[in-house]
Specification:
The protein is of the alpha+beta class. It is built from four helices and seven strands. The strands form two sheets. Strands 1, 2, 3, 4 and 5 form a five-stranded antiparallel β-sheet that branches. It has a two-stranded antiparallel ribbon with strand order 6-7. Helix 3 runs antiparallel to helix 4. The longest helix has 14 residues.
């Protein structure tokens, strides 16, 4: 079993309902066991497109799925909840990102783990800090709490 962390975000439609439906979808999966879920957090949208704020959360789970199978499961849940295409930084009803897959590092064209921007995203670190403050970033060798403090000191 691998410990995984996934961020959830929505800025279209009934955001809380969509996040709850995504969590329910993960709970129905035979090979994923949710351990913890952070509070829901409001955040300003990233990117160059003017859009509504996001509602975000982070889940901690264990899984028997490989990193690629986990990505496929996340993409299936996104499609099932109405996400039609992957738009970088644009409005979306649901966005699921794999943050960590245990201490593994995956660097492939279609999959990067740990998520390459998680240490720059306050809304991700806030949820991670709530549920697993001592988890160590396998590349940066800093705990989630240390990353959170660093981002707050830098004013990001």
């Amino acid at each position: 079993m691998k410990k995984i962390f996934i961020s959830l975000g929505s800025n279209v439609g009934s955001r809380q309902k969509i996040l709850e439906e995504a969590l329910f979808s993960f709970q129905q999966h035979d090979f994923i066991s949710i351990e913890k879920v952070s509070s829901f957090y409001e955040s300003t949208a990233w990117g160059k497109i003017e859009q509504d704020s996001f509602l975000n959360a982070v889940l901690e789970a264990t899984t028997l799925l490989s990193p690629h199978e986990l990505l496929e499961s996340c993409q299936t849940i996104e499609r099932d909840l109405g996400r039609s295409k992957k738009s970088d930084f644009g409005p979306r009803c649901i966005d699921l990102d794999i943050l960590f897959y245990g201490e593994e590092v995956v660097c492939e064209e279609t999959l990067l783990i740990p998520h390459p921007l998680l240490h720059e995203r306050h809304f991700v670190l806030k949820g991670l800090k709530e549920i697993s403050p001592e988890f160590q970033h396998p590349i940066l060798s800093l705990s989630v709490s240390e990353l959170y403090e660093k981002i707050n000191l830098n004013g990001i």
